[in-house]
Design a protein that fits this description.
The protein is built from twelve helices and ten strands. It has about 280 residues and is an alpha/beta fold.
Length: about 280
């Protein structure tokens, strides 16, 4: 029943792309460079201080209904396509940093019964909701509260073979990006593969935020109406962040996704960045 449901979801949500053109580039640059008023230093620091609180409120309000399950992970990243073969001999360990309510953990654990999963998130409410999910299996899943900026990653866990950062780094202030990646590098074992997916510069959502007064905190960094923050990455910037800490880049590209809301007949031009690094 579950696999049939998954197949139907994937069929109804076929991936479509669009071509990035000079005209699109010129338009979006004009929008984000308009540079509206920025919040004062007091408010910037307050958003940083309240980051965990605002995400807790987000999860209390949306529970597990906001994000869709990510069934694309093993299809997008070739190393995971071979997991069933690898599992015949030795169980593999997967760690999701910023696991939220389990939208990556549960699809992978359903597909690979011999997968040991770790998950960390800095929102206590998200971890609470994840553990209440009927699919949560404490024998195969271990999740804990961990703030990637302020806390050390728990070292009493086995270093993973695969690790993911899926729409996580964008919620972290840019001045903390390098220290977080350094922490992740030290956590992983040699040969570990890290999968990265997040918002890219010029995304439609950035265009909307750029037009709002006092939403811009720093270049490519904005605060949303609910107090949560979002950063939009560039390929060269992302490459430097990871390579400077010792990672080897395998893949790093923008994905220009065309997302269609059939109900409202709206087509949205999204820009996401997807990358793969190995220690």
């Amino acid at each position: 029943m579950e696999s049939s449901k998954q197949e139907n979801e994937e069929k109804d949500n076929k991936i479509a792309y669009y071509e990035w053109t000079p005209d699109i580039q010129a338009h979006v640059e004009d929008v984000i460079n308009a540079d509206p008023s920025k919040p004062t230093e007091f408010w910037y620091n307050k958003y940083e201080k309240d980051a965990k609180r605002n995400w807790d409120i987000f999860y209390k309000h949306n529970t597990t209904n906001f994000f869709k399950n990510r069934y694309y992970i093993d299809a997008e990243f070739t190393e995971l396509k071979n997991l069933e073969t690898l599992f015949k001999d030795t169980p593999k360990v997967y760690c999701e940093l910023g696991c939220g309510v389990g939208n990556t953990i549960f699809p992978l654990s359903q597909k690979y019964s011999n997968l040991l999963v770790y998950g960390f998130d800095f929102s206590p409410k998200a971890i609470e909701l994840l553990k209440k999910n009927p699919e949560y299996d404490p024998k195969r899943m271990i999740v804990e509260v961990c703030d990637l900026v302020k806390d050390p990653i728990p070292m009493n866990f086995e270093a993973p073979d695969f690790c993911s950062l899926i729409f996580v780094m964008s919620a972290i202030s840019p001045e903390n990006h390098q220290s977080v990646i350094k922490k992740i590098y030290e956590f992983l074992k040699p040969g570990s593969v890290l999968f990265f997916r997040d918002y890219a510069k010029f995304d439609l959502a950035q265009m909307k935020l750029a037009k709002q007064k006092c939403a811009k905190l720093k270049d490519n960094f904005y605060v949303k109406s609910d107090g949560t923050r979002v950063y939009y990455f560039q390929k060269e910037e992302l490459r430097k962040l990871f390579v400077d800490e010792g990672f080897k880049e395998i893949y790093n590209e923008n994905h220009y996704r065309l997302v269609e809301n059939k109900k409202d007949e709206i087509k949205m031009h999204r820009v996401w960045i997807q990358a793969k690094f190995v220690k």
